[in-house]
Amino acid sequence: MSGSDTPAVETSVRPEPVRQPGQTAGRPPLPDRLLYKVLYLNKLTVTFDGFKALDELTLDVEPGELRCIIGPNGAGKTTMMDVITGKTRPDHGTAWFGPKIDLLALTEPEIAQAGIGRKFQKPSVFEYLTVFENLELSLAGDKSFWKTLVARLSPAERDQIDRVLGIIGLADERKAPARTLSHGQKQWLEIGMLLMQEPELLLVDEPVAGMTPQETERTAELLLSLAGEHSIIVVEHDMDFVRSIAKQVTVLHEGRVLSEGDMDYVQNDPRVIEVYLGA
């Protein structure tokens, strides 16, 4: 009788397959000192045709932190984000999202469902739908496009869309087709589309490229307002923008962390000046 009871006990404590894949066979557990990090990358190596895009990259991010990643072209910034989101698999290393989620055990859709959202440099919105409809589709999750168009929103869903419209500053444009928005507004709309999924971690790639000074300032305010409730990783080349938002900056070079600290520290690091900022 006791033997028949044992499997039932084991089943009841088994981790959920998507939210807690950290028990994957052969994957070392997260060290105790890193249990409270929202993201931990350890010795990630990615090689393309003999070129090391990542070379034992190790870094971690605190919950609610806004981290800026800078570095020259080819430093590994995009590859790092590709690994985090499941687009690229490393040759070796580990990647943890929180203490229990082994990112290397998940597919791209599973990683998105686990709470990681990514915004690419070029905004990707539905140009011929309104701002409101873009957010509505993002709220829909796994619903089909056509089913979403005929579905009725609940009061809670409408409240969520209204809340996000206020956050991204597009409440007055809610009925405007996305194609009529400025470049900056499209960037904000795409951030809003990610927020509809309620991600814990946001990856944002060069958010102010091509923006006016006013749009750049507004984007800084937006990202700062999101930090705390969300953890955010921003990859950016605009040093003035980075200085306006970052408390912690990581400099990548040749697939490794070259320097890390506040903006004043990395800006005066001779190694960073040599390979990136110039004399």
Overview of this protein structure:
- This protein has 279 residues and is of the alpha/beta class.
- The chain has a domain at 125-192.
- The chain contains eleven helices and ten strands.
- The strands form two sheets. Strands 6-7-8-3-9-10 form a six-stranded mixed beta sheet, sandwiched between helices. Strands 2-1-4-5 form a four-stranded antiparallel beta sheet, covered by helices on one side.
- Helix 4 runs parallel beside helix 7.
- The radius of gyration is 21 Å and the shape is globular.
Spatially, the strands of the biggest sheet line up as 6-7-8-3-9-10
Strand element count: 10
- Along the chain, the helix and strand elements come as HEEEHEEHEHHHHEHEHEEHH
Which stretches are low in confidence, meaning pLDDT under 50 for 5 or more residues running? 1-25
Number of helical runs? 11
Give the distance, in angstroms, between the N- and C-terminal Cα atoms.
76 Å
Characterize the biggest β-sheet: 6 strands, mixed
Shape assignment: globular
Mean pLDDT: 85
Using the CA coordinates, give the radius of gyration: 21 Å
Sheet-strand content, in percent, reads 15-25%
**Helix-and-strand structural type:** alpha/beta
Helical fraction? 25-40%
Fill in the keyword field for this structure.
four-stranded antiparallel sheet, single chain, disordered N terminus, six-stranded mixed sheet, 10 strands, 279 residues
Task: Give the arrangement of secondary structure elements.
Blueprint: H1 2-13, E1 39-48, E2 51-61, E3 66-70, H2 77-84, E4 92-97, E5 101-102, H3 108-114, E6 116-119, H4 131-139, H5 145-150, H6 155-168, H7 183-195, E7 201-205, H8 213-226, E8 231-235, H9 239-245, E9 248-253, E10 256-261, H10 263-267, H11 270-277
Parallel strand pairs: 3-8, 3-9, 6-7, 7-8
Antiparallel strand pairs: 1-2, 1-4, 4-5, 9-10
Helix pairs in contact: 4-6, 4-7, 6-7
